[in-house]
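Holo prediction — 2-oxoglutaric acid.
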Amino acid sequence: MSSDKKKRSRVQGGWAVPSNVRSDRNKPKAPVGPAWLGKNIDQAAGSQKKFVYEKPEEEAKSAPPEQVISKPGVYDISTEPSGVSRLRFFPQFIDPDEANDLYDDLYHNIPWRQRNDVDKKTGESFLQPRLTAWYGDFPYSYSGLTHEPNTEWLGSLKLLKDRLEEITGVKFNSMLANMYRDGHDSVAWHSDDESSLGPEPTIASLSFGDTRNFEFRKKPPQSPDGAYDYTYSERLKIPLTHGSLLIMEGCSQADWQHRVPREYHDRDPRINLTFRVINPECG
Ligand SMILES: O=C(O)CCC(=O)C(=O)O
C-alpha cells in the first residue's frame, strides 16, 4: 500500500479519493436503489385508485403465549367438564445440602439401565434417550416396554416415599426413576394415563441435579380423522430445580401432555423420581 493511500485511509476512515482525481460532485446523480422504488407497482400507470385496508373477516389464529411457573404454589391449569387439572409446586422441597447427599446416593445406588421403547406406529424398537429404574410390587408397562416388579427399595427412597405420603395423604406403592445423563437426554410428549394408574392419578415428582424444563401442552379436541393438532394448544413450562417437588393431580394426565425436551446447551446429569400408585386390577 502506498504511503499516500495509507495516510488518506487513516485520516478519513476509508478510501478517500486521491487529491489528483477530479471531483464528480457536480455530475447528475444516478438513481440509488432499484428502479421500481417509489413507484406504485401494483397499479396501472395513471390509475388514481388508493389502497384501502380491509379487515379480514376471520381473526388470525395464534398460539397463546407459553406460561412459566417458577414460584411455589397451587396452580389449576385447566377446568373442563372432565374436571380440574391441578399442579402443586415446591421449588425447594428438600434443602440443597440434603438434596446433594440424596443425589450422590441415587446416582451410585439405583440400578440404572438404558431400555428400549417401541414406536406404536412402525413397531420399531429404539433405545430410550435416558436411563430408568422401577420400584414397586407390580410391573409397569408403557410404550411397549414392561418394567418387572422390584421391591429392593433403597433406604433413602423409602424415607422420601414416607415424606411424600405424609404431605399428600396418598399411599404410593411404586416409583419410576429417570436419569438424564446430559442435555441430550429427554422424554418425549406423553401422559401418564396407563389404565393401571387409574382415572385421575396423583403423581409426585422429585428432581435432583441440573435444572431441566418440564413442559406441558393441553390436549386439543380430536379431529374427525382421529388426529390431534397441537399448533394452538396452551403451553406451560416449569424449570425443575435441585430438590424441587411437583405434584400432578386431577385431570392433568387426561387433559394435558408433558415432556422434558432435549437441550441445546450443556447440562449436568439430572435424576427424577416419580412416585405413583399402581392398581394391578386396572392394568
Ligand atoms: O423427568 C421428569 O421430570 C418427568 C419424567 C416423566 O415424564 C415420567 O416419568 O413420566
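READOUT: Confidence is low (pLDDT under 50) at residues 8-23.
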